[in-house]
Amino acid sequence: MNVDYLIVGCGLAGISFAEVLFQNNKSFVVINDNSQNSTKIAGGLYNPVVLKRFTEAWQATRQVKLMYDFYRKVEEKLDCKLFNEDVPVIRKFFSIEEQNNWFIAADKKNLSNFLSTTIISKPYQFINSEFGFGKVNHSGFVDTALLQNEYSKFLMENNLLINETFDYSKLQLEENGCNYKQIRAKKVVFAEGFGMNKNPFFNYLPLDGTKGELLVIKAPKLEIDAIINASVFILPLGNDLFKVGATYNWSDKTDLPTFEGKSELITKLKELISCDFEVVDHLAGIRPTVNDRRPLLGRHPKFSNLFVLNGLGTRGVMLGPDMAYQLYDFIENDTELEREININRYVSRYVS
Ligand SMILES: Cc1cc2nc3c(=O)[nH]c(=O)nc-3n(C[C@H](O)[C@H](O)[C@H](O)COP(=O)(O)OP(=O)(O)OC[C@H]3O[C@@H](n4cnc5c(N)ncnc54)[C@H](O)[C@@H]3O)c2cc1C
Predict the structure, then answer these.
(1) 210 lines ligand 1 (CB under 6 A)
(2) How far apart are CA 171 and CA 183, in angstroms?
(3) How is residue 342 annotated by DSSP?
(4) Does residue 36 line the site of ligand 1, with CB under 6 A?
(5) Is 171 in the pocket of ligand 1 (CB under 6 A)?
(6) Are 216 and 281 in contact (CB under 8 A)?
(7) pLDDT in tens, 253-292
């Protein structure tokens, strides 16, 4: 099989790059296994505001613009609903001071488009909210598990997906391309999420990973039509089911659900809601986070046909499409990658 690109990984990063290749009529094949599950279990929220500090998330204005068009095209192609813009994020206020800070932030040029200035007062029977909520415009969620399932199905149907673990020792590098088993590809893009740490070509990069746990609960009395953001988020899934998350753990690098993670989420949830609920699922995964909180994009320092698309961290839904377009333009159109995202910033760590 002769292709322009071989992509390793079919999470948000790999899917985003595959989609950009489709849009540009490039041929490719994807290799994926189930060793990582960040995309599979993510909350899938997109939200252009850092709700702890009421500041714009990094380059959010640009990412939001790109994202809408991107996911709509994917929805159309897969013929399923992935993009839920009708379920916005609403931030619970814990004090009058927070309300004031919200209004001060909403006055700023870069945030006025994102922060609604109408306070939502006590709309939900079983959620304690003395000071009300602020709505984030241009927020919502993408069903990332469905996206991964449906996109993989689409790739399989078109013979573009191989379900196996990529064996790095079988990759042969030549001047004008690479050979991997029966595949001849001009270029390889590695998008393995936290699995990149096993990649001998790129594991010099500081992908430290942050474990996250989530619960799925059933709460028939909890009627909410928005994503509640407080000490945890509550995302309505329909049929009385809700996703509740997420924890942040920087030392445990396994993707196993833990008793501590579950207890933390239940404790915070009980402070937020006052109706009964039952835990029906408990999920865990590793976010591909980087020390400097910026993605990892670019060309290998020594092997010019090898590229990486990683480090989507806690915001893969918004970052995926933008980073995929930027990497594509860098490879095909010789555009520069900003220093902030270019793996060149870590070249001193590379030992050949
Ligand atoms: C608990 C939790 C909640 C989150 N909530 C949100 C949220 O609300 N909003 C948001 O935007 N982001 C969220 N994220 C982050 C988001 O999930 C990630 O940014 C994104 O999914 C990363 O995508 P990825 O493709 O880089 O990695 P992954 O999703 O990990 O995908 C990598 C793929 O590559 C495969 N792979 C790895 N190594 C190999 C190999 N050698 N051979 C073959 N295949 C391989 C893996 O099995 C996997 O399928 C959350 C993450 C977690 C853990």
Answers:
(1) no
(2) 10
(3) B
(4) yes
(5) no
(6) yes
(7) 999 999 999 999 999 999 999 999 999 999 999 999 999 9
**If you measure from the C-alpha of residue 41 to the centroid of ligand 1, how many angstroms do you get, rounded to a whole number?**
8
Q: Which residues contact 328 (CB under 8 A, 6 or more apart)?
A: 17, 20, 21, 24
For residue range 197-247, list pLDDT tens digits in order. 999 999 999 999 999 999 999 999 999 999 999 999 999 999 999 999 999
Domains of the chain: 2-42+145-206+291-349 (3.50.50.60), 85-139+209-287 (3.30.9.10)
- 8 Å CB contact between 310 and 205: yes
pLDDT for residue 122 is more than 80? no
88 φ/ψ sector (left φ>0, alpha ψ -120 to 50, else beta): beta
Measured between alpha carbons, how far is 32 from 50 in angstroms, rounded to an integer?
A: 32
Q: What is the Å distance from ligand 1's center to 37 Cα?
A: 6
Q: Is the pTM higher than 0.85?
A: yes
How far is the centre of ligand 1, averaged over its atoms, from the C-alpha of 285 (Å)? 8
Distance CA 180, CA 192 (A): 17
Instruction: Tell me, using a 6 A CB cutoff, whether residue 47 lines ligand 1.
Output: no
